[in-house]
Request: fold
Amino acid sequence: MSTFALAVRDSSTMLRRNLLHVRRYPSLTLNLLLTPVMLLLLFVYIFGDAMSAGLAGGGGRDAYIAYVVPGILLMTIGSTVVGAAVSVAMDKNEGIIARFRTMAIHRGSILVGHVVGSVMQSLASVLLVGAVGLAIGFRSTDATVLEWLAALGLIALFALALTWIAVGMGMASPNAEGASNSATPLILLPLISSAFVPLDSMPGWFRPVAEYQPFTPAIETLRGLLLGTEIGHNGWLAVAWSLALTVLGYRWSTAAFRRDPA
Reply:
């Protein structure tokens, strides 16, 4: 069997292992999924009318639903990949990764199984949160089929990037609790982005914090694709951030994996 075929076979086995863990222990995924759903309902039904005043042209709660859902969808990815960091840290702390090192399997398949499984979880979570958004009134009537495909591609690429970062955090953490704490910025960064309010409405001293981070261009791009509006330079920035984070997370994760266990 060729090296590539061996890698695919072993990666598929590791993927099945991780998906079985999700099925048997769904509480972690459900807890992480609860945060974006609750924030969506909170900002739409409690703050929606007030927050819509900051949008260009106002528009009330319906306009705010259209504005906030794309941000919540990407926040869902940040919340879901925390599970990947915790899962990797648990495997490392419990000696499972060390045991896999001694087996005749493709070494890269161990991390690939975690990454692919987490990306699949993220996409499933985005679909569930998107269904909640549709149920409360979100509509994407102006987006073309091509824009929908581009939106799905962006979501998948962003999920891949954040997953590799989360895996690196898990490999660098001494235990599951440390991994969960290390991955907290992936949940907090969307809160200080353009997910909930436009950049123009932010104070001048705070706006650069929200503008120069990966979530804001990704959110603006997804919002433009789903609503059929202009995305400007945000599309290139979102792709650049995603590729840079993917490379950084991959190199970080693989370097930590190759390092001799303590």
